[in-house]
Specification:
- This protein has 2 domains: 262 residues, no CATH class; 250 residues, EAL domain (TIM Barrel).
- 41% of the residues lie in helices and 22% in strands.
- It is built from 18 helices and 20 strands.
- Helix 12 packs parallel to helix 13.
- The longest helix has 45 residues.
- Bound molecules: calcium ion (2 copies).
């Protein structure tokens, strides 16, 4: 069976080898298509993440106002509502009305003129409903987040859909492109640029089409770009591709032969790789933005195959998690970390070592025993350890989850919320989990471009983390503009390519010792008073 299969592959590969010469244009088109589609997807994901974040922030603000107010429409209530609006970065108004929409009072006592663009929509996981509205003094549509009070009155908070203005969205739109925000039911919310039917254009070869959903909200963001517009930026590549295609044909023939040989051995044997310690820890430095000193590191991993090939984690992490191999893999990594960093941890008592955990680790308390067995009698003390939980796959608030977290806390280790802002968690969720550190996802850091003076959604995340009393680590910092921006917002800790990629243990230790003259500055998380929220 197997031999036959590889013969077929070889034959196919041999035929395919001549394709590059015949299809330069086709290859270049495919290259532009996939590269530009991925870039557009990232941009639309950032927009829809912002809408989702804005709505969730309004929910939190509204809940706090309701919890803090002994009664409604009294001067005390107005004061509480005004303070909540002032402290939030995006809530514009708070309104109390009866079920027919007769207004009783609002935060500023001037009435709220707005018209609905949708019916009031339920959101999975929330008791609040959301209505898309046109708010009197804004061109950007707004979200009206509503809580019902005892079935007779309702209270609502208003937030703009996005911090950007319609004008600046239009300005950045290429010729012939369309950006369109709509409810998942199809009801249009905002449509800018060319007016086209997205569903009819989505399979057309002359357009690039992407769409993204705003978390659990029934809102989608869609973008259409004429392919010719994207392709125009790649004219220089035509010549290069013609040359490369000749080389490509020759290479493909070689690869086909190599593949036929290699396919006789199992190509994906993660279990054996873990047993042989081929999954190696790599250490990405976390830097103090104020002092330039080293705070610690995040333990990442690479698969170093015996033939010298280095496989990045993206290729095998999902497989590891789904096959249950993530647990022995983490165990092997922790053992190697103890071996690699014992000496350094003793020299630098403030050094923090951050280790990624997976959803599987929270099904029983085994991980707490493992941490104890590995680090219990080592020079690395528990309070030098931080365990990261990703927000991409929110954990249930179950007994098992809570006992793992309290077990790790009892040892003295800290818990970090990884990839914060990408999931659907709100304030209450993070607070109940007992998180000490919030790691802001790179998507939000990436919104800071050179010359950016304010990124409301990033500022919101930072002030949310500070209000929870959590330490903040910014991830994926790649430019000086981003580092400067984060520092100006009171963020002290950061990791990313601008400082260093994930390093092998030797290089990481060298860097750590070189930075040792710079004082450690881990503990000083910014407090709310340090956060600069205006653009000044
Ligand atoms: Ca992580
Ligand atoms: Ca992360």
């Amino acid at each position: 069976m197997k031999a036959k299969f590889s013969h077929v592959l070889m034959l196919l590969g041999g035929l395919l080898a001549f394709v590059p010469i015949l299809s330069v244009d086709f290859a270049l088109d495919a290259y532009v298509r996939s590269k530009e589609t991925a870039a557009l997807q990232t941009r639309m994901d950032a927009l829809s993440a912002e809408i989702n974040y804005n709505a969730n922030n309004a929910v939190s603000v509204l809940r706090k106002v309701v919890a803090d107010s002994p009664s409604f429409c009294t001067p005390t209530f107005t004061g509480i509502a005004q303070a909540a609006i002032e402290n939030s970065y995006n809530v514009k108004q708070i309104l109390v009305e009866n079920m027919d929409g007769v207004q009783y009072c609002d935060a500023f006592g001037r009435g709220v003129s707005h018209s609905p663009l949708s019916t009031s929509l339920p959101v999975p996981g929330l008791t609040e409903t959301i209505t898309v509205v046109k708010f009197a003094d804004m061109t950007m549509p707004a979200l009206k987040v509503t809580q019902t009070l005892g079935g007779v009155r309702r209270i609502s908070a208003f937030v703009p859909l996005m911090a950007t203005t319609e004008e600046s969205l239009v300005e950045n739109l290429p010729q012939g492109a369309m950006i369109d925000i709509a409810l998942t039911s199809g009801t249009p919310v905002l449509s800018l640029g060319e007016s086209m039917d997205f569903d009819r254009s989505v399979n057309r070869q002359d357009y690039l089409a992407v769409q993204s959903y705003a978390g659990e909200l029934p809102i989608k963001v869609r973008y259409l770009l004429p392919f010719a517009e994207a392709r125009a930026g790649y004219a220089d590549l035509d010549v290069v591709f013609t040359l490369l295609s000749c080389v490509g044909s020759a290479m493909l023939l070689l690869v086909t032969l190599a593949y036929a040989r290699r396919s006789r051995t199992p190509s994906f044997d993660l279990e054996r790789a873990i047993g042989r310690n081929e999954i190696k820890p790599y250490y990405q430095p976390v830097i103090n933005l104020r002092t330039g000193g080293l705070v610690g590191c995040e333990v990442l991993c690479r698969w170093e195959k015996p033939n010298g090939e280095i496989v990045p984690p993206g290729v095998f992490i999902d497989y590891a998690e789904n096959s249950g191999m993530a647990i022995p893999m983490t165990l092997s990594l922790m053992q190697q970390v103890r071996y690699d960093l014992s000496e350094l941890a003793q020299k630098m008592p403030g050094l923090k070592i951050s280790i990624n955990l997976f959803e599987g680790h929270f099904r029983d308390v085994g991980i707490v025993d493992d941490v104890q067995a590995i680090f219990g009698n080592s020079p690395i003390s528990y309070d030098q350890l931080v365990f990261e939980i990703t927000e991409r796959r929110p954990l249930e608030n179950s007994t098992a989850v809570n006992s793992v977290i309290s077990g790790l806390h009892a040892l003295g280790a800290k818990i970090a919320m990884d990839d914060a802002g990408t999931g659907h968690s709100n304030l209450a969720y993070i607070a109940t989990l007992g998180v000490d550190v919030i790691k802001i996802d790179r998507v939000f850091v990436d919104m800071v471009k050179p010359g950016t003076t304010q990124v409301a959604v990033l500022d919101g995340l930072i002030s949310m983390a500070a209000n929870l009393g959590c330490e903040i680590v910014a991830e994926g910092v790649e430019t000086e503009a981003q580092a400067v921006y984060l520092r100006s917002r009171g963020v002290v800790q950061a990791q990313g390519y601008i400082f260093a990629p994930a390093l092998k243990v030797g290089a990481f230790k060298e860097l750590a010792l070189a930075l040792q003259s710079v004082p450690l500055g881990y503990g000083d998380a910014p407090d709310a008073s340090e956060i600069v929220t205006d653009a000044a």
